[in-house]
Amino acid sequence: MNRPQLFHRRMPRLTRLLPAMALAGAVAVVLPLALTASGPRAANAAQASGAVPAADSPAGFYYGTDSWPIAINSKAPYREPVLSSHPVYGGYIGMAGNWARWSGCGGNIAWSSADSAAANTNYNKYGRGIGTGVYWFMGGPGVDPHYNGTATEASSWGAAQAAKTLRAMGSLKVTYKIVWLDIELPGIKPALDNGWNNVYTSPCSGRIQSAGVPAAVDRAEVNGYEAYLTAHSSYVPGIYSSPSIWGSIFGTGSASNVSGTYEWTYTNATSRLSKPPVKWCVLGTTTCARFFGGVSRSSKQAVMWQWSGGGGVTNGIGDFDQIDTNTVK
User: Fold this and answer.
1) What angle do CA 7, 11, 13 make, to 5 degrees?
2) Hey, which end of the chain has fewer CB within 10 Å, N or C?
């Protein structure tokens, strides 16, 4: 999510943390592929009859949005905004919190109560999509106020952020099982790298004390977050990042391997909304989701793709996602 001004989105999630929000109007393009296994005729008939249309294809794939608000102007069951095929709105993923705001450095919370409510209505009443999920904008070891270069302290810093995430979720209506660790190099203050590659004199100073954080220490923080989350809740961890960012933080050795962890990627992305992706690729293009840390498009751990609006690839509206519910609903 490079989120600008945390942000977005990009993402500030993601600059991506993330979008420019006024709904610009419907995109007058027809999706070139059936949205159901029965083909375009069946999809059109379902929409004409008022039935809830299938979403993306193949079965189990949905479209959704994340972070800053995007106006959803349809009636329930709600439809994905902007896309001319009007697929069902499959989910919303918002920022539960971010390390900088928690540390007193300022920053915004990229959250939409309206989009969350629409997603939850589709999930709870119509059985479609995932409802509402959340992510935590992670601060790396280098912005830990107690940083001492050890894996033990990094693990504790990760656990503290997980605890804060769960507290923040207490006031939100979260239905999705995965809690996302947002790991990126956002290029925004107070720490342009969020403390993953440099150690700062203090969390909010913006001044680098020393360059370089060992990959093993970075990974210890991730492990600490995940361990706390799973020990203190029924949620499971997932990681939001990209291949290039992941490699620049965790390298290519054992610290980089997260092949058993759920992933949400923002690479590759497109600024065009006229051709929503099918499965993990935009038809007729070379734009496809690319995962990281040992996970590929065929992996069960590949569950979300921010296909437009993230990674600095803006579309003028916001962040659009593709969600596979075949493994996690």
Assistant:
1) 110
2) C
Distance of CA 143 to the CA centre of its chain: 22
Q: Who contacts 45 (Cβ-Cβ below 8 Å, separation ≥6)?
A: none
Q: How many CB atoms neighbour CB 263 within 10 A?
A: 27
Q: What sign does the dihedral 115-116-122-128 (CA atoms) show? A: positive
- pLDDT recorded at residue 55: 61
* Mean of all residue pLDDT scores within the chain: 87
Burial class (CB in 10 A: 0-12, 13-18, 19+), 115: buried
Spell out a b/e string for 194-223, using b for 16 or more CB atoms within 10 Å of the CB, else e.
bbbbbbbeebbeeebeeeebebebbbbbbb
- Residue 223 to residue 213: CA distance in whole angstroms: 16
pTM of this structure:
0.85
Q: What is the CA radius of gyration of the chain?
A: 19
Encoded tokens for 156 = 């504790």
Contacts of 285 by beta carbon, 8 Å cutoff, 6+ apart: 270, 275
Amino acid identity of residue 243, one-letter, is: P
Query: Which amino acid is located at 146 in the chain?
Result: H
As a whole number of angstroms, the distance between CA 327 and CA 322 comes to 14
Return d(Cα 179, Cα 165) in angstroms, integer. Answer: 9
Which residues does the chain have with pLDDT short of 50?
A: 3-52
Instruction: Determine the 3-state secondary structure of 34 from DSSP.
Output: coil
Cis peptide before 120 (omega within 30 of 0): no
**Residue 186 token pair:** 């956002």
Q: How far apart are CA 311 and CA 318, in angstroms?
A: 12
Region for residue 9 given its phi and psi (left: phi exceeds 0; alpha: psi -120 to 50; beta: otherwise): left
User: Residue 199: phi, psi to the nearest 5?
Assistant: -105, 130
